Amino acid sequence: MQTEDIQISARSNPSQRVIALGIVFAFLYFASSVVITLLLAVLVAYFLDPVVGVLEKIRVPRAVGALLVLLAVSSSVAGLGYLMADRAEQFMDAWPRYSAELRKATTALDRKLSVMEKQVEAISPEPERGRGPLRVIQEQPVRSWLFLGVGSIYSVLLVATFVPFLVFFMLAGKRHIWRATMNLFPDRSRPRVQEALDQLSLMLRSFVAGNAVVALILMLLTWALFLKMHLEYPFLIACASGLLNMVPYLGAVLAWLPPFLIGMAQWNSVGPYLWIASGLLAIHLVGLNALMPAMVGRRVHLNALSVTVALLFWGWLWGAIGLVLAIPITAAIKVICDHVDGWEPAGRWLGA
Q1: Which end of the chain offers a freer environment for a tag, N or C, measured as fewer CB atoms within 10 Å?
Q2: DSSP letter at 343?
Q3: What's the count of helices (H) and strands (E) in the chain, helices before strands?
Q4: What is the per-residue DSSP string for 191-235?
Q5: CA 266 to CA 230: how far, in whole Å?
């Protein structure tokens, strides 16, 4: 009986690649809470690792240093949360006044839209006059939109509970994790893997640190603007507008919403709104065109098209948190493409 040599090719055909890509996307969508938790923990760990390294140089055990850094960060976040909660409680006490103004504005807008519909219906052809406009009934409540990309309160609690533990284990066991990761690759590939991991570490650390500094500067500038405009709750609204201003492209408009809402109960003229809009737009342009390139752009190396596509895709997949993670994920993909044979053209396209 003649035996035949059967050769198995390691290369995948296009259909297999499409199926594998679909499986990856399905996993990212259905396991979003787990993936988001891991990614946030990785970003925080890269951000805090230099501080733990400094403590280790002064002979503080790495596990103890990681614990001390986490306690310090948790205390700072808790203090900031207390300040925010105190002002948020005052805002919630005054919310009926703002909700009445908001209801009045929406009623006036709805009245104007109704007048426009009647005018359009009056000039429409005869067969279409008796036909009322189609109205789409939204069955989803508002809270489903608020938690888009986060999933549910359970997902929020999952992130808040597991991120500190994951960050501690990543910081305390950095050497073991690094060594185990290098052992996954053959000896001839380890220098290139080492270079990729070093570049990835530097990029993620620069991204988190740069965004934190830029966000702080934007919040301080926004706070000063709201104090000058005598806007109520300037610190609370400045924190919200400053964070919204960090969203690429859309942040310039999203940052208007909190001060406009508060201003509805204070101002009856258009002038203050124009000053707020122009001031926030100027702050956004300074942050986007001056601060971000200086502190983050030199490490990320992404072109405007790839950033826009990444924001669209990850925002669609994970909602608001996807907009936050879109740039570091895409930058990490670029670093991987730059160090994998055959993937270099994709890396050059992302950074062209």
Answers
A1: N
A2: -
A3: 17, 0
A4: HHHHHHHHHHHHHHHHHHHHHHHHHHHHHHHHHHHHHHTT-SSHH
A5: 9
Cα 290 to Cα 286: distance, rounded to the nearest angstrom = 5
Torsion of CA 22, 26, 29, 33, to 10 degrees: -130
3-class SS at 158?
Answer: helix
Residue 311: which residues within 8 A CB-CB, separation 6 or more? Answer: 248, 249, 323, 326, 327
The set of residues, in sequence order, having a beta carbon less than 8 Å from that of 56 and lying 6+ positions away, is 62, 65
- Report yes or no: 185 and 194 within 8 Å, Cβ to Cβ: no
Report the pLDDT value the prediction gives residue 13, as an integer from 0 to 100.
Answer: 65
Q: Which of 205, 164, 152, 145 is nearest to 37 (CA)?
A: 164
Q: Is the pLDDT of residue 75 over 80?
A: yes
The two tokens of residue 344 are 């270099």
Could you give the angle at the alpha carbon of 322 between the alpha carbons of 282 and 236, nearest 5°? 50
Q: What is the DSSP letter of 131?
A: S
Tell me the percentage of the chain whose pLDDT exceeds 70.
70
pTM over 0.85: no
Q: What pLDDT, on the 0 to 100 scale, is given for residue 8? A: 40
What are the C-alpha distances in Å from 159 to residues 17, 37, 44, 273? 32, 5, 12, 37
* Higher pLDDT among residues 69 and 91, named by residue: 69
Burial of residue 229 (number of CB atoms within 10 Å: 0-12, 13-18, 19+): middle
C-beta separation of 66 from 171 below 8 A: yes
**How many other C-beta atoms lie within 10 A of the C-beta of residue 269?**
7
Nearest alpha-carbon partner for 305 in 323, 335, 330, 332: 330
Count of alpha carbons within 13 angstroms of residue 352, beta-carbon side = 8
What burial class does residue 92 get, using C-beta atoms within 10 Å of its C-beta: 0-12 exposed, 13-18 middle, 19+ buried? exposed
pLDDT at 1 (0 to 100): 45
Tokens standing for 221? Answer: 């500038």
